[in-house]
Amino acid sequence: MTTKGKAIVLAVAVAISGCQSPSENKTNSGKNDSSMVKLITLDPGHFHAALVQKKSYPGMDTSVYVYAPDGPEVEAHLNLIKQYNSRDEDPTHWNEIVYKGADFAEKMFTEKKGNVVVLAGNNRLKTDYIKRSVDSGLNVLADKPMAINSANFTKLLSAFEAAQQKKVLLYDIMTERSEITNILQKELMHDSTLFGEIKKGSEKDPSYIIESIHYFAKQVSGKPLIRPTWFFDPTQQGDAIADVGTHLVDLAQWQCLPDVALDYNNDIKITSAKIWPTSLTPTQFAIVTGSNSYPDFLKSYVTKDSILETHANGEMNYTLKGIPVKIIARWDFKAAEGGDSHHAIIKGTKATLEIRQGKKENFKPVLYILSSANNKNGFDSSVQSAIAAIAGKYPGVSAEKQGEEWKVVIPSTYGVGHEAHFGQVMERYLQYLKDGKLPEWEVPNMIAKYYTTTKALELATQH
Asked: Rounded CA gap, 10 and 15, in Å?
């Protein structure tokens, strides 16, 4: 980026570092009942659009306006909503009012039937939809990623600036903050008696490491998931480090520097990044998409006449206010056992906090506490004191010693599952709408997050 360009971007970041936080920034809730949240679902191409409606919410209109092109993606979305409405236990009562046509976006922006736009689908146009929505005075709840490349990042900066001017809330869906093991890992790393301080570390010995493995073939709400063919196109879905990597970068910021507003120009330094493909056979592609042939836009990724080399893996190394961080995002076809997995290590001067999700853990995330080499004396009592404090906030949490390490035992009531986390994110967002503001650190940290992912991808593609 040129010096002039950096100056412009920095000016935008400074201008919006307090974006949406002053008490006078009240949300634009539409022209009708300002107390009622009214959803608009725009072009739902990803099942996450439905998951925010898996439960009902007080103060939200049950009529939801859906605008989309006709086709299997909108039908899959509507079928999930019907499934939630018709289930025996705690059914929802959504009334989906659907417009299907080539001019769906123009129709939505002309009619503006609601006041919160939900975006989860093809990422090629998502940043444009975000910008147009906030320019139209609409609040936005967007699935990750909100930007999949550096050009989108610049546009996203403009969208946040417009959101401040229009007094609307632009927010992304960060479900991993609701996972109980991530929450407790964060709590324990800020217990200085137990954890000490985060290690200085280096790129070769990072202080914070997350590896996330996702699978193309999986089930959602009890049924096999059919993914759109564009999901495998990096120009439409995004590369792994700019897609799933968003969650991992968000966790690093949220856990290591809670409530700290980041300045991405000074607080983040990308040191290295790389991407590599996952190979899919035509049969595997058909299982996941229902398509027996590759569309033309994927032909350039096909090798040996039939193997799809999809942009599914990435690694980035960077420093976050001097903390060395390693992020690895990977995709494979199908899990041999279990499902998507998460492995996270945070190294402190007194202890290491590690989340594992392997066969020993029955493929469920489990948090372990390990003593550093020079902190054996008194370590067990430090663990017990830290867990007692945790149990004060999260009743029932305990720890059991297993050899040289401690396993954090978490009651099953806290393990609500990934799909339920979307409802928890929506509940937080609804409170922000009620308050008329986001926490002061959220906007600068969303900006920092998408700078990190898109800048790392830019670096990876230069090699």
From this structure: 8
